[in-house]
Amino acid sequence: MSRVLNNRGYISEATRKKVYKAMEELNYQPNELARSLYRRKSNLIGVLIPSVSHPFFGQLTYYIEYYAHEAGYKILLCNSGQDSVKEKEYIDMLKRHQVDGIIMGSHTLDVEQYANINLPIVAIDRHLSDDIPYISSDNYHGGVLATELLLKKGCKKVAHISGPLILNTPANNRYKAFKDVVTKENVEHFVVETKLNKFEIDEYIRLGTELLEAHPDIDGIFASSDMIAAAIINVARILNKKIPEELKVVGYDDIELAALIVPPLTTIRQPIKEIAKKAIELILDQVDGKKVATENILPITLIERETT
Question: Which of 108, 136, 198, 212 is least crowded, fewest Cβ atoms below 10 Å from its Cβ?
Answer without folding.
Answer: 198
